Amino acid sequence: MRQPLLALLAKEPAHGYELKLALEQTFGQAYPSPNIGQVYVTLKRLEQDGLVRSQDVEQTTRPNKRVYELTPAGREALLAWIDEPSDGPRIRDEFFIKLILAPMTGLADRIALMNTQRRHYLSVIRRLTELHADTDPADTPARLLIEGALLHLQADLDWLERCQEEFV
Amino acid sequence: MSRAAPKGSPWPPERSADSPVLLKTSGLVKVYRADGVSVEAVRGVDLELAVGEFVAIMGPSGSGKSTLLHVLGGLEPATSGELWLRGQRVDGLSTSAWALLRRRHIGFVFQFFNLLSSMTVADNVELPALLAGATPRQARKRREELLSELGLTDKAGAAPARLSGGEQQRVALARALANEPSLLLADEPTGNLDSSNTRDVLRLLRRTHDRGQTILLVTHDARVASMADRVINLFDGMVADDAKIVPIPRGLNGVRDVLELRG
């Protein structure tokens, strides 16, 4: 959650609860709903690392609130994060390891493993497709996230076909 | 055979294990021979399709899935093995007997729509009913129902070429359903469509299925296959896997839950 908080603070200083709301509004259903405790803990760590600083703002009717803002070091860290290319696709995932090791275990054959995995992918694809249909069309981040997951799963299925060609 | 699909009913609809068998093959083989070379495209397929089922066939290119579909629909003769449709053995039928059988019991949808370009949308949809012996009035009534259901009423007088790919495929679907076929066969029905048109065609297929239509389709698109009750994986002309899709229970948190599944 570090980088999303830094990104939100790059826009304007804010207190913890405002940041939680902003995360929810920005991502819609596409981000796990942040727990407020987690937000405060992350802000504290960012402050220890010198990436944000905070001050108490007095409020007349309510207890003081702590408002956070980005430091120059924080801005630099954020820029570095944005500039750096993000991780590519999953490689060498658990299924891959199982598939390669299967003959050594004597417990499972590759065809059965591939079939199980294909069925699982198809079930997940079905669920995602239903979810896409049920998602508020205005929730663009959620729709795009689901479409991305679907495209990845289609690629996983295509790759399973490649494995089938090699191993059968 | 229209079956009301009550709202909120389980999906896919529950079907008892003893639903009557609509289509059955045993040891089905298709060999292509040309210039002294023979290629075994389908190598001994046994399958059963029950009335009301929605089955998808997947598999790599060259695995024989389109060939299998064409043999099942009588577009190409089987080389050996048995093919039964509605309790009748049909693998030995003549071309003209097949044409009659298809007219009454099988609807076809292809990847490239195959609409008749010189006829209007309405005529394309009415033609199969007229060929099957319906009166012009009956054919028109059925066409109006289908086009309205598929959201194409205002395109009735248009030439197919003036329609988008998605619309053309909906017309092709209307035409395939014109004679209320026992079996709808579809060969890559979304293979030539973008994702929003794919979604429209999927929705229609699913709605058609919910009303009891038996569907067998060949697809490379996982979204299409995942809509089926059952997915057959064909590899090298043989069935490598044949399994029901087990839907994942719906969680309370929508997108967040599902994305958890992917880690």
Structure report:
The complex is a heterodimer of chains A (168) and B (263). With 168 residues, chain A is mostly helical. Chain A folds into two domains: 2-83, Winged helix-like DNA-binding domain superfamily/Winged helix DNA-binding domain (Arc Repressor Mutant, subunit A); 94-167. Chain A has seven helices and three strands; from the N terminus they run H-E-H-H-E-E-H-H-H-H. A three-stranded antiparallel beta sheet of chain A has the order 1-3-2. In chain A, a hairpin with a 7-residue loop joins strand 2 and strand 3 (65-70). Chain A is elongated and about 70 Å long. Chain B is α/β, with parallel strands linked by helices and 263 residues long. In chain B, 32% of the residues lie in helices and 26% in strands. Chain B has a six-stranded mixed beta sheet with strand order 6-7-8-3-9-10. In chain B, a hairpin with a 2-residue loop joins strand 9 (230-235) and strand 10. Chain A binds chain B through residues 29-30, 32-33, 111, 115, 118-119, 121-131, 133-135, 142, 145-147, 149-150, 152-154, 157, 161, 164-165, 168, and chain B through 58-60, 195, 199, 202-203, 221-223, 225-227, 231, 233, 235-236, 240-241, 243, 245-248, 250, 254-256, 258-259, 261-262.
The helicity of chain A comes to: 55-70%
| Main beta sheet of chain B | 6 strands, mixed
Distance between the termini of chain B: 44 Å
Report the sheet with the most strands of chain A, covering strand number, pairing sense and barrel closure: 3 strands, antiparallel
CATH superfamily of the largest domain in chain A: Winged helix-like DNA-binding domain superfamily/Winged helix DNA-binding domain
Mean pLDDT of chain B: 86
Strand order of the biggest β-sheet of chain A: 1-3-2
Low-confidence stretches of chain A: none
The count of β-strands of chain A is 3
The shape of chain A is elongated
| Percentage of β-strand residues of chain B | 25-35%
Q: What is the fold named in CATH at topology level of the domain at 21-117 and 181-261 in chain B?
A: Rossmann fold
Any idea what the CATH architecture of the domain at 21-117 and 181-261 in chain B is? 3-Layer(aba) Sandwich
CATH class of the domain at 21-117 and 181-261 in chain B: Alpha Beta
Number of domains of chain A: 2
